[in-house]
Design brief:
It comes from Rhododendron simsii. It is elongated and about 90 Å long. The chain has helices at about 1-25, 80, 110-125, 215-220, 225-265, 290-310, 320-345, 370-395, 405-430, 440-465, 470-505; strands at about 45-50, 60, 90, 100-110, 125-130, 135-140, 140-150, 150-160, 160-170, 175-180, 185-190, 195-205. Strands 1, 2, 3, 5 and 6 form a five-stranded antiparallel β-sheet that branches. A hairpin with a 7-residue loop joins strand 1 (about 45-50) and strand 2. Helix 5 (about 225-265) packs parallel to helix 9, helix 8 (about 370-395) packs antiparallel against helix 9 and helix 9 packs across helix 10 (about 440-465). About 50% of the residues lie in helices and about 15% in strands. It has eleven helices and twelve strands.
Length: about 500
Amino acid sequence: MKARRMAECSAICLVAFLIMCCASQVTSDGLNHQYKAGDIIPLYANKAGPFRNPSETYAYNDLPYCPPDQVEQKKESLGEVLNGYRLVSTAYKLDFLVEKESEVACKKKLTKEEVSQFRAAVAHDYYFQMYYDDLPIWAFIGKVEDKHYDGGIVEQYHLFTHLEFEILYNTGHVIEITLRTHPIYVVELTEDEEVDVEFTYTVRWKETDSLFEKRIDKYLSTLPYHRRVHWFAVMNSCLTVLIVLGCLLTFYVRVLKKDINKYASDEELFGNQEETGWKSIHGDVFRYPKHKSLFAAAIGSGTQLFVLVNAALPLGTILLLLSIWLFGASPLLLCGGIAGRNSGSDLQAPCRTTKCPREIPTLRWYRGTLPQMAVAGILPFGVIYVETYYLLASIWGHRFYVIYGILLIVFIILVIITAFVTVALTYFQLAAEDHEWWWRSFFCGGSTGLFIYGYCLYYYYRRSDMSGFLQTSFFFGYMGCICYGIFLMLGTIGFRTSLLFVRHIYGSIKCE
């Protein structure tokens, strides 16, 4: 009897589940982006801010537009929250396939304070952003015109009051939406006095053959010229890698291999000769550097950043991310530190380290740390500077970055060039009988991060229109953190490749 009741309950649940599945296939809503004529599709306002400072944004409702009868806030995903989205409903009604001509959204009397607020926004080229069926649209708030008056020029501030929406659709799907402001429908805001405003809008629908699956391509496409520039930069970077690789192979065959063969020969032939060059410091080359705890921390941080590069943030809630950090990353970091301390062994060097460090001879100025860092950083930066511009333009501008395949190729080339250049400079340092190569290899490898930060200065003042104290501190603060991370990551690559190189050459010779 009990089994029979369980079977009946299971059958009822199965039927209910099938009914829900069938209902979900015919329901038109925003989840599957499938609509029928007359369905309500909300138009959400996101943000507003000066066009020249894309990262300086404010809520749309901070401007004195008239709100709808009932303000609704869209439930954002974690990605939208992290991007600073604050989507709220507007007074514009854009129902599916419903056309409107000069429809009144709202009427409002602007106070002197609101007129002043709008005028300041127009003077700073404010734009606003909206979303319709998850598609972004933009428009400027107003315009400034120069009017000749009594032999002089007076600036007039105009607020756009009419919006024109043109929406393309295909079999129940919204494919594309464009927004235009009408230059005739404006209100002058030059004087600080109350003014009556009537906000109106027009909606037009047009059918298209474009597929719903490709509707995002409009926002992700790049100009053919930009693609040619990208591929030209990649080809130039690959050519640079081949040239550097050829030079290093030639150097290894003609110079380094000759030294190794000479030092690896029977010592009786060279017993009466004084050791010179990089062999003479074999007793000091594997001596731990100064501030070795700080050095180990820097190498560990750089290794972690290198492993995490082109990794994506998981979607979820902020609480989930906080839980991952509290109960995942932090305990693993602690356990890793304890395990490394307890299980760590001494450096197994191919040469015995002497008790007293060898005196380093006086070197020329160009063999100092700063000149070597300049030499080590300029070549890798020359490989990536074109891609750096497009990245900055997408992060701090209005561009969309979509060519991630090229970005991966450039990153691989950057790693290879950094390793090659650092190894070469490490050899020159050892050949000059300077055994303090640990920190030097780390600094030389990471110096590209300093060049990138220097390029940020150039980009901010010459290639962007950003200004203001907050925008300046925001830009250089964030880019400073990013470039510091790049410094740690590339510095780790430089040290580890130099360590492999030093082990190789000193393991190939006979040492006392």
